[in-house]
Amino acid sequence: MPAFTPSRRTLLRMAAAMPALTLPVTAYSAQLGAPAGPNPTYMRFTLGQAKMTVISDGSLSLPVSGIGVNADPAEVQAFLTAHFLSPETNYAHTNHLLIELGEAKVLVDVGSGNRFLDTAGRLMANLDAAGVDPDSITHVVITHAHPDHIWGIRDDFDEAILPDAQKFIGAAERDFWMQDDLVNQVPQDMQQFVLGAVNSITVDGAEWTLLADGDEVAPGIRVIDTPGHTPGHMSVVVESDGQQLLAIGDALSHAYLSFARPDWYNEFDMDGDQTVATRARLLDMAAADRMAVIGYHFPFPGVGHVMREGDAYRFIPALWTFES
Q1: Taking the CB of residue 288, how many other CB atoms lie within 10 A of it?
Q2: What is the pLDDT of residue 280?
Q3: CA torsion, points 263, 266, 267, 273, in degrees to nearest 10?
């Protein structure tokens, strides 16, 4: 059985985490106050002939102690403080990519649904806000089977959402979570992750097409193996008119730490060493090939580029344009 080595945080602790960041204004905080009304929850851009929409599923607030678990906690906190971020709470966005290319309309991941933290699970409502008819989605690709990426596959009747869309997941990812009696082979505080993954993969009405490295989902849209965060984690590559974009899922989970300190991994990276190796490969590829990237947990909308900076890298947010 592949190694399953998450560290000490539990789903129960996550559920108990504060639902929204309400820290007082301090020297380190880059966070603004909560809005009086709603903020935009989607953003559109193009890549060659591909039409892209980033749709939010909400946000997650988790303890900073889950970041850089192989580093000195004081060094991690100092890094965050220097970058005007809270040294106590990691507030993360959840950015889904909808790709329209040719006849395909491909959604990457399905969010949390109503079975995870109550600050997430907004994907379907925000698709509606963006004017996207869910029935028009032709393909769904799951990067990996963690709660905030796949638990939203089940509706309130325990049936699969988007029943007419073809659904894809990596063969290695499915095989890992569907191992016989895996739930009793992992730490007790990870058993809910296993049960949730199994319930999502086996949801009524979902027939999965299993993917391997390099497989094409639709013309111009393929997947690549990016293991480490989970054993079968995959990223999505979009290519049109010579331009490329990489939807990296959780292979890089922080827009600052994952770039400046790619050797640090997090508590939910199941294989830390492999996570670091995969991250190095992705960063080098994106920087060398000048690929656009979208990070699932980056500040919304999470789209930008990778710039090499000595032995490390830097995320450069894209300058997106208004309608002319």
Answers
A1: 10
A2: 97
A3: -30
Counting Cβ atoms within 10 Å, is residue 252 exposed (0-12), middle (13-18) or buried (19+)?
buried
**Domain coordinates of the chain in residue numbers?**
11-20+40-317
Q: According to the 3-state scheme, what is the secondary structure of 106-163?
A: EEECCCCCCCCCCCECCHHHHHHHCCCCHHHCCEEEECCCCHHHHHHHECCCCEECCC
- Domain 11-20+40-317 classified CATH 3.40.605.10? no
Number of C-beta neighbours around residue 114 at 10 A: 12
160-148-244 Cα angle (round to 5)? 95
Question: Residue 30 — very low, low, confident or very high, per pLDDT cuts 50/70/90?
Answer: low
Q: What is d(CA 262, CA 284) in angstroms, rounded to the nearest whole number?
A: 11
Q: Look at the block and give the residue holding tokens 């505080």.
A: 189
Q: Is the pLDDT score of 23 beyond 70?
A: no
Taking residue 129's Cβ as centre, other Cβ atoms within 10 Å add up to 15
**At 12, is the secondary structure helix, strand, or coil?**
helix
Dist. CA 129–CA 38, nearest whole Å? 11
User: Which pLDDT value is given to residue 29?
Assistant: 54
Length of the chain: 324
Do 277 and 238 contact (CB within 8 A), yes or no?
no
DSSP E strands in 64-114: the ranges are: 89-101, 104-108
Average pLDDT, the chain: 91
Indicate the pTM of the whole model.
0.91
Integer distance in angstroms from the first to the last C-alpha of the chain?
54
- Are 256 and 215 in contact, with CB atoms under 8 Å apart? no
Integer CA distances (angstroms), 146 to 45, 93, 153, 197, in order: 27, 15, 12, 7
Q: What is the pLDDT of residues 92-140, one digit of tens each?
A: 999 999 999 999 999 999 999 999 999 999 999 999 999 999 999 999 9
Q: Is the pLDDT of residue 64 over 60?
A: yes
